[in-house]
Design brief:
By secondary structure, this protein is mostly helical. Helix content is 62%, strand content 5%. It contains nine helices and four strands; from the N terminus they run H-E-H-H-H-E-E-E-H-H-H-H-H. Strand 3 and strand 4 form a beta hairpin. Helix 1 crosses helix 7 and helix 6 runs antiparallel to helix 7. The protein starts with a helix and ends with a helix.
């Protein structure tokens, strides 16, 4: 249901071609510009992680070393955007989409808070992007939901963690697939939907970019939570291998 509502939201945002503020526009050089931005932000996140290694909680240290070791390979993944060609359009998007931005109403969902990320300038928040950025934000939010619940329930009991770990990954994978499948069905034929090959590349890049954003945020604000984005980045790195 959430996937369908998200699709309806994106279709609505792209429906008024007469209003310049909402009319879909060609991708242009947006991918190349964003590939450079993503590489830069990923590098900054890795430098920050390396400088804070001595401050991390013990459970996160091993994951941090794994991410740092894979850092150059992860940054290189953004280069695929530079040569990507797609006929998909850019549209206005939510810009700060995650589970905290939806309200559950019995068997449905209401989307809220459309002002974008508060720390970004208004002009940037009004800018047009790929709606896959919103999709990536929600997929990462499922990961946060699964991992935070997992941490609350297993605490410092490694035996319980070993037993429940596969179930946590199964839940995140299933929910992500259900959401993505419903979204794709809902936006079929929309001008902003990329070709299948381009969609895979874009979604992987946006999910990885979001995970690096989370890493910077947690290092600066909630170091006890840093294991969540680290786990997400490790998963992405393993998927590439």
């Amino acid at each position: 249901v959430l996937g369908r509502r998200t699709a309806e939201f994106h279709v609505a945002l792209a429906s008024d071609r007469r209003d310049p503020a909402f009319a879909p526009v060609p991708m242009g050089d947006w991918l190349q510009v964003n590939a450079d931005r993503m590489r830069r932000h990923a590098g900054e996140a890795l430098e920050l992680l390396n400088s804070r290694l001595h401050l991390l909680p013990d459970p996160a240290t091993a994951a941090a070393h794994e991410v740092l070791s894979a850092g150059n390979d992860l940054i290189r993944r953004f280069r695929t955007l530079e040569s990507l060609r797609t006929g998909a359009a850019r549209i206005r998007i939510h810009g700060d989409f995650h589970l905290g931005q939806v309200l559950r109403t019995r068997d449905d969902f209401i989307l809220i808070d459309f002002e974008g990320e508060p720390l970004r300038p208004i002009a940037e928040r009004r800018g047009k992007s790929s709606p896959l950025v919103d999709v990536a934000g929600m997929l990462r939010s499922f990961g946060y939901a699964a991992r935070s619940a997992f941490a609350d329930r297993v605490g410092d009991r490694p035996g319980l963690a070993t037993v429940r770990e596969p179930w946590v990954r199964a839940w995140e994978t299933w929910v992500s697939a259900a959401f993505l499948r419903a979204w794709l069905e809902g936006v079929a034929g929309a001008p902003f939907l990329p070709e299948p090959e381009a969609l895979d590349v874009l979604l992987d890049a946006f999910v990885l970019d979001k995970a690096f954003y989370e890493l910077r945020y947690e290092l600066n604000n909630r170091p006890d939570w840093v294991a969540l984005p680290l786990d997400g980045i490790r998963t992405i790195a393993g998927r590439g291998e």
